[in-house]
Write a structure and sequence with these properties.
Blueprint (H helix, E strand, L loop, with lengths): L2 H24 L6 E4 L4 E3 L7 E4 L2 E4 L8 E9 L5 E9 L8 E10 L2 E7 L3 E2 L7 E8 L6 E9 L4 E7 L1
């Protein structure tokens, strides 16, 4: 093999290696987007007085019958096409109530708004210790909207945040 051909082959090999590394390590962001529960609101009453916040978390401070819950909506904006992992950090009330969460993405077009993707509905146990709820994947268009619906246990159930990546 001629020295020129060897040199061209070496350059080509380096270029292929550089492109492969760029695609493998630099094509997607590995950072998680985190939305604090405090950015959420009650539903259907936007100013639900049962929810109290402290730093990032929202807590259901109202009492109720065993198993009763209040709906907390946490809105979010998508930066990417879908997320492979959505995790909510939440807790039960410590005695007889669990908190559960689900992610929903929406698309608005000329014919109105419709749901695109729904994650699993996942529940905490009754403990007050923060628990990670793996909601799974969600499909959403870049710039599209998604929100997280958490039914928060009466008398102390909490939601801390939602992470998606």
């Amino acid at each position: 093999m001629s020295p020129e051909l060897e040199e061209d082959l070496m350059r080509f090999t380096k270029l292929v290696l550089a492109v492969t590394c760029a695609l493998a390590f630099g094509s997607a962001s590995s950072e998680a987007d985190t939305v604090s529960a405090m950015s959420g609101h009650g539903w259907p009453n936007h100013f639900d007085s049962c929810f109290g916040s402290s730093w990032a978390l929202m807590q259901n401070n109202c009492s109720g019958s065993v198993g009763s819950q209040r709906l907390l909506i946490i809105p979010a904006q998508a930066a990417y096409w879908g997320y492979n992992s959505v995790i909510a950090k939440a807790a039960g009330n410590g005695s007889n109530g669990m908190t559960n969460c689900q992610g929903i993405s929406a698309w608005t077009g000329s014919d109105g708004q419709s749901g695109i993707s729904f994650t699993s509905i996942v529940s905490t146990n009754m403990a007050t210790a923060p628990q990670w709820l793996n909601l799974g994947a969600i499909t959403v268009w870049p710039g599209g909207t998604m929100h997280f619906e958490c039914f928060v246990a009466q008398g102390g159930g909490r939601v801390f945040s939602v992470d998606f990546q």
